[in-house]
Amino acid sequence: IILLNQVYVEAYTCPCVRCHPFDSIFVAQSNGNYDAIFTTTPPYRLNKYKRYEGHVVSGFPIKCNFSLDGKKLASGSSDGSIYLYDYQSSKVVKKIKAHDQACIDVAFHPVIPNVIASCSWDGSIFVFE
After folding, report:
1. Taking the model in full, what pTM does it have?
2. SS3 readout for the chain
């Protein structure tokens, strides 16, 4: 028996996958320094014309998250920054220098939309407004 669960052939690992809160897409954080966009229904189609670029992964288990309204995507970066992307255009709208070491995860507050928490490879946690 052969089980095939690979969505697409990628030269890099993808340490994080996140579904959009409303649209039928998900993003895969690639160790190739970008987030790839896919449809959530089989066959999972890669959007070849749009992806979220700017942050750097450098082999760290960097994660990303959508805002509750789905208008922003936040990603950590090995340079210690948080990158905020506009969901529709995939452009970087803000870069926040958060940590001295790699920022490995970011999360939006579940009630207050302009509050973001991040954590670093060194174990530090910060909250930004």
Report:
1. 0.90
2. CCCCCCCCCCCCCCCEEEECCCCCEEEEEECCCEEEEEECCCCCCEEEEEEEECCCCCCCCCCEEECCCCCEEEECCCCCEEEEEECCCCCEEEEEECCCCCEEEEEECCCCCCCEEEEECCCCEEEEC
DSSP-assigned beta bridge partners for residue 127: 117
Sign for the CA dihedral angle at 65, 126, 59, 32 comes to positive
The tally of CA atoms less than 13 A away on the side-chain side of residue 44 is 15
Nearest to 105 by CA among 82, 77, 78, 76: 76
Task: Select from 26, 96, 27 the least CA-distant residue to 55.
Answer: 96
Q: Which pLDDT score is estimated for 6?
A: 54
| pLDDT per position as a tens digit, 75-110 | 999 999 999 999 999 999 999 999 999 999 999 999
Q: Give residue-wise pLDDT tens across range 33-68.
A: 999 999 998 888 889 999 999 999 988 999 999 999
